[in-house]
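Lecture 7 notes. Example A: sequence first, then its structure tokens.
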Amino acid sequence: MLSSLGLGDGQNMGTANGKIALDCSVRKTRQGHVCISTTDFFFPLVDSPYLQGRIGAANVLSDLYAEGVGECDFVLMLLAACREMKEEERNICTREMVRGFNDACIEAGTVVTGGQTVINPWPVIGGVATTICSEGEYVKSDGAQVGDVVVLTKPLGTQVAVNVHEWRVRQTPKWAELTKRKILSQEQAEDMMHAAVCSMSRLNRHGGSLMRKYNAHAGTDVTGFGILGHAQNLMDNQREAVGMEIHTLPCIAGTPKVEGSGVLDFRLLKGYSAETSGGLMICMKEEDAVEYCKELEELDGEPAWIIGRIIEHAHRKARILEDVKVLEIPCTSCS
């Protein structure tokens, strides 16, 4: 749709042929530094405006971390206050969203320095995250090599968990079907949503900062296109003619059961279920990946997984193997 517009100038760094950025805009400044910037925003998916703000910040920062940087120099906030709310409700909701966003930025070691605010039918929060670094302080997105393994740092299934939560709260026919068929209990649904919120609100900062230490060759984060969509985008961006085979899908506990019930096809196990503030997907040598996952778990208290491998492929295709192994990952803070 937009290919005829000639967007970009072919000078982006770290992307094949200098094309429009994969996750971030990576540009060399006139002074010889590298400016890495990204933008995103977040619609309400959770009940708490504070958590909405926190997840919104984590989502924005994640693209930056996917470039192998662990530091963000500053953030601009994009804020939409809800015109449909009463004034008191709007003031409370907006303040809590901003507080959650700011708290996540403080945890990330960065600061909100400005932004833009509008009135909107929906409360929305997001921002622009920027870091200035030197040439060797980030990981280019185009260096995947045959023989690399693929690491994922967060489980899949946030879309499933959020929708099931909404069904339960609203007591919809879909929730009635899940309970009638004993696919999911109320307690399991609550645990599933709690796991999703914990995952979405957790920063990918440590995952990004360790990429250079463990010699990552390429990376992206898993968000709206689902894991297979982002895997394909990553393969399309490589210098070498490589593809990806995904042999393992770590999912939030309970989400594969919902997917298999047929109540609604989220395409989770097909790789196209949208994720919010998902994990980093990183290509690196297997021996480095093992140590990377070990140190990341020590820092975050949550596991990461080797989920695939990079193969030679003339057509640069990413695919999920037919005998894919599905892991159900419990939330450690649920127990």
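Example B, a different protein, same format:
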Amino acid sequence: MSSCGNSGEVLQQVCSLWSMMDDLCQSDPEGYRKFIHQQMKAGAEYNCPPDVHCRLRTLTLEPEETVLYINICSWKRVPARQDPGMPLPVCAGKLEKESCEDGCFILDVAFNPSVLQECERDREKMKQLFMQVMGFFQQQHGMKLSLQHTVVNSCPRSSVSDLYRRLGFQKSPKRAELPDAASQNLAPIMQQLSLHSQGGRGPAAQASCGPAKPEKTDLIQVVSSTSAQPEKPTHRLEVKSDAAGAASKLEVTVELPKVSAALDCRLEISHEELLLQVEDVYYLLMDFPRAVNDKTAAAVFDKHTRRLILQVDLL
């Protein structure tokens, strides 16, 4: 595997990046603010979890007759199709079978949100997408499907954590590795900065494409969901009692030695679970032992101990 650059090249890129940001801050403070806001927004959107758009229920006919559920998800990590004549990018998860007597198969497929928004406006396009997904399943897994299918409201094992696991967002090796700094490419950000400093004027983006091929091409293009995998931080969960001795709230303490500011953390909670992410560094998805009132949640990050403490009332 070839390296994208050495440490010296990366250092030079970083120095150039900071210099361009300093110049932009001094020459155009408003443009600098917009640029920072744009980068933060893009990062937040990229880290949004997959959202189940709809669920299909059908049957596998060969090699055995079994119920198959397909979660069709919207996920911004999947690139949008740039050309109507190109294959439709899709991220497909691991095919899973329920471990019960009449076990069913479960598959997750994710598309860029723009694909599903377009299909929402046209019922025929949505039907075509369903058929493409089913054809994709048969091609990838070598199983024959029934042409009959129904849209259902629920599917086994379809929580956020299940989707993450099957789609490969979080690997489960013994130890997660952080990306090599020498492999990082800062050119796209520097190009954006350059355009900002020119007031938005610059060469138009160009795409190189070859001549159209007459032979049949795939309708769906599989893309990988794997990237630099974050590690699971050390954490502990405690149940706090009120003056009467009854359990009243949960306290979660997370050790984040590689985090220097609360802004680096993305924290979400629901009645049932907590999701904490620090891009490419930490990832923690934890189920609560009991339902909580997420509206009472309060979190504090101590930059000296680099420890995050969350408290939330029990329902």
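Note on Example B: The longest helix spans residues 7-27. The helical segments are 7-27, 29-46, 113-120, 123-141, 160-167, 187-197.
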